[in-house]
Specification:
CATH architecture of the largest domain: 2-Layer Sandwich
Keywords: Isomerase, tRNA processing
GO biological process, one term: tRNA pseudouridine synthesis
Largest sheet: 9 strands, mixed
Strand content: 35-45%
Number of domains: 3
EC number: 5.4.99.25
Number of strands: 20
Domain tRNA pseudouridylate synthase B C-terminal: 180-238
Mean pLDDT: 93
CATH topology of the largest domain: Pseudouridine synthase
Family: Belongs to the pseudouridine synthase TruB family. Type 1 subfamily.
Number of helices: 8
């Protein structure tokens, strides 16, 4: 039984669920979970949680992401990416100064409102939007507020011109951000229909592209007995939260999941991680109803429990 975080490089043409299915066969274990979906046409960092680490999956899912995208100005599609049928097209000659594009990118940083695309997994009335879209049914989609930390223009040209203009950007954003929709929003601000031509996720929380293995590399390391060395500890998924040692008096209470007086760090933080040596034993958070107290959110067990 493997345990830890496996930073996987998801290749194009596969869903996140496909990756989990393949890994269950390669590793011969069922307790495997991914940390947020990537569309089949998107490649990039997909941290996979193995064994006890599945308890920490939501923290990776909720952490920030970094993407590199190619934005195409001049044509919009029904899926908001290159795979969809054309909805609107404007092939007039376009000319943008780099500074104009940078200004638009800056205007879309911070908290912005997005409406999820019809071809997405968001549920409306218990049904995913892409199911409505495939049936040709249009439904009202709830808007959401997302946080864009930074958008950087990566293409080095000073002037972009042509009938269909493309440029590459890097986006650092919070959870729930649709880069496809952001691409359309960039086009709207430039005054033209647009879509996302390609997308790569280069980081998910603390996990980067250089950390990752492909499925084939995972298989090879498993066969050679080297896979354990490639796994990252559960604690790497908890790096956004402050960690504190649990002393011999406190540790038994934490392992029993008791509600306790709030740790001083919780005056400024939402969560703290209690450690037994180098091993995370529990994530505690401020009690939602009882002021001055804290309650366990996730329990990982003590160092003595490791098998």
């Amino acid at each position: 039984m493997y345990e830890g975080i496996l930073p996987l490089w998801k290749e194009k043409g596969m869903t996140s669920h496909d990756c989990v299915f393949r890994l269950r066969k390669i590793l011969g274990m069922k307790r495997i979970g991914h940390t947020g979906t990537l569309d089949p046409d998107v490649e990039g960092v997909l941290p996979i949680c193995l064994g006890r680490a599945t308890k920490a999956a939501e923290y990776v899912t909720d952490s920030g992401k970094t993407y590199e995208a190619v934005i195409s100005i001049g044509r919009s599609t029904e899926t908001e990416d290159a795979s969809g049928a054309t909805v609107e097209e404007d092939l007039s000659l376009k000319r943008f100064e780099a500074s104009e594009i940078v200004d638009v990118l800056r205007s879309l940083t911070g908290e912005i409102i997005q409406i999820p695309p019809m071809y997405s997994a968001v549920k409306v009335n218990g049904k995913r939007l892409y199911e409505y879209a495939r049936q040709g049914i249009s439904v009202e989609r709830p808007s959401r507020t997302v946080r864009i930390k930074e958008i950087e223009l990566l293409s080095g040209e000073q002037v972009f011109e042509g009938e269909e203009v493309e440029f590459r950007i890097r986006i650092r954003c919070g959870k729930g951000t649709y880069i496809r929709t952001l691409s359309v929003q960039i086009g709207e601000k430039l005054g033209y229909p647009a879509h996302m031509a390609s997308l790569v996720r280069t980081a998910s929380g603390p996990f980067n592209a250089e950390d990752c293995l492909t499925l084939e590399e995972v298989k090879q390391k498993k066969e050679c007995g080297d896979l354990e060395d490639a796994l990252l500890p559960i604690e790497s998924a908890l790096s956004d939260f402050p960690s504190v040692p649990a002393d011999s008096t406190l540790l038994p209470k934490i392992l029993n999941g008791q509600v306790l007086p709030a740790h001083p760090l919780l005056t400024a933080q939402v969560r703290v991680v209690f450690m037994d040596g180098t091993r995370a034993v529990a994530v505690y958070r401020r009690h939602p109803e009882k002021e001055g107290l804290m309650k366990p959110e996730k329990m990982f067990g003590s160092a003595a429990d490791k098998r």
